[in-house]
Amino acid sequence: MIDIAPGSEILETSLGVLHEVFGYDNFRGPQAEIVSHVGGGGDALVLMPTGGGKSLCYQVPAIVRERAGQGLTVVVSPLIALMHDQVGALIEAGVAAAFLNSSLSSEDAQRVEKEMLRGELTLLYAAPERLTTPRFLALLDSLLERGKLALFAIDEAHCVSQWGHDFRPEYRGLAVLHERFPQVPRVALTATADDLTRADIIERLQLQEARTFISSFDRPNIRYQLVEKKDATSQLQRFIRDEHLGADGHDAGIVYCQSRRRVEEVASMLSEAGFNALPYHAGLDAAVRQRHQDRFLREEGLIMVATIAFGMGIDKPDVRFVAHLDMPKNIEGYYQETGRAGRDGEPATAWMAYGLQDVVNQRRMIDESPAADEFKQVLRGKLDALLTLAEASDCRRVRLLSYFGEASQPCGNCDNCLTPPELFDATESARKLLSCIYRVQQASGTAFGAGHIMDILRGKATDKVKQYGHEKLSTFGIGADLSETQWRALLRQLIAREAVQVHDAPYNTLHLADAARDILKGQQQVWLRTLADKAAGATRSGRQRAARATAKDEGVPLSLSERDCLEALKAWRAEVAREHNLPAFVIFHDATLRAVAARKPESLADLDGIAGIGQKKREAYGSEVLRVVSAFV
User: Which residues pair with 324 in a beta bridge?
Assistant: First the structure.
């Protein structure tokens, strides 16, 4: 195991590659230490948030090691779209790269294999199921025998863990890399993994001797905004119109729904409301899914409504919001999905509407799964952690980072920081609700669902209440002081505290759990947030829009002429992207074009030092960029 300290020759070489190929002068955060360690032949596990620059942590060492005569880097990647975009970006930067996946014809696949064996490639991307085939392993054996196998990079490494939010069985076969090629260094990378998932990654990939690099999980440009679900689709429309609709149209965004049917409904609703929205789920024809994904990557201001099948490996940097209309399964999934917003570092929003039924549905799916009891208990704990985040009255970011073991201060940017919720002591109300569940079951010998319990508490003599004689119970009408919405919010908290359990069979009935005892005895307090009125919500939206505008202006403030120049550069970039069949951001990121518009370069030398313009791109596009800019000088 080679461990090379920052400041070494490898780091200097890596900095040269970073500037020459990618157009950046310095590494960010722990990138320099990671690149030095991996470039020197060390194994590593890298946890770095989406948008933090994970790909450079293996791309730069790959180039350094290939130039030193050590051969090919093989990148394990789970998605065709991710391979296509990353390989396209590398080729644009002048790096010899290719991919092997099912989108290639047999002739094209054979051509790539020959390039691989001839030593003509620096990086080769492959799916885990292809990498572990006897044919591909034999090709790797051939490279190893000639000393031309430099590095294995395992992207989206959380997929190997059963505790991760996106477990993929085919990743388990990657243990063969250490067993068959122990002398070849490996780097495993992921954007999200709690302690349990990290330990599982290390065990499954046999990375016990690897160094672990953990970056901050904080994404300060993302505003977390969680609202109680009422009419979710209407709430979503208001959110987009209030926060992400400007003179030039709405921002690009992703809306996650739990079911395919819900995806279709929401996409249709948004389209009818005048938004540019498309559906994406596994039930669509593969060609349709690919067409929708390509449009999302290439068009501005498109909203993708999708199940969680969409998103991993999506490099689109200018997604301005990610919305959840249904609660995810755990914080890891929530963090991974919301992290697809604001990859460019500009302000973005993570918005979620959640309700009692979300909790019930997620718990039912856990209970009905064929998994072992130990596994189910872990899943319940992860769901409870997400519910606790949703019900929190303090800083969302502090709670979120704490889950990943990172301490932080209140961010001043989430919904709770911007408009601190008012709280009231709901202990007595909690005791009333628990007592009602107990009295109903005692009187009838059976349990009932949430709606019926709330009718009794609020004194509503429905036909069902009269049928069972529940209007005669001592708890009938004792909760008329709270609305049904407040009772549901309180019930969610009691479920999160494991004071109440929801049994699926037959009708999502409510049952007291062990933790109810302390609340009933008055030994534990329960606090509930006071529901904000509409005026307060409007004020908050106004403040958020103002904060977002301010944050955006803090980047590179542009004059009117510079903004016109930026739009001209974007139009030119769009033409080039269409010619190359690549997303526009693969040619140049918005931040790079913004810097060009602000600097107004007049010579190729003036382009040097603008982040994102490496040597190959300066040679390929420099003259055209200067031509576009010249009209505004």
Answer: 256, 352
